[in-house]
Design brief:
Layout: H1 2-24, H2 31-57, H3 61-73, H4 79-86, H5 92-96
């Protein structure tokens, strides 16, 4: 599963790198290219969160509980965000966003 995470992280990094370049020189991109960049950012980020959830679900309940507690106390994102992503219905942002 780690190789898959590495591939997903690389795809997400590339999508956001393309967006950074587009922001630097927006006149160099067509509207369709900008749309594709936005869609790639959404899809790669959502794929990463879906993979995190799938990995989380492979752990026994006691381990999931401890891991969720540690993540909620980490100060990285909010406890609500971790709950939504790993246990709930997913990141609220990606529930509302759809491909353009």
């Amino acid at each position: 599963m780690i190789a898959n995470f590495d591939e997903l992280a690389q795809a997400e990094d590339i999508a956001y790198f393309k967006a950074d370049i587009c922001l630097y020189s927006p006149e160099s991109y067509t509207l369709e290219e900008k749309r594709d960049i936005c869609n790639e950012m959404i899809s790669t980020s959502k794929a990463m969160l879906d993979a995190m959830r799938a990995d989380f679900e492979t752990y026994p309940p006691a381990i999931r509980s401890k891991l969720l507690d540690m993540l909620c106390q980490s100060g990285i994102e909010s406890p609500e965000w971790w709950w939504d992503v790993l246990v709930g219905e997913g990141d609220p942002l990606y529930r509302e966003l759809e491909a353009i």
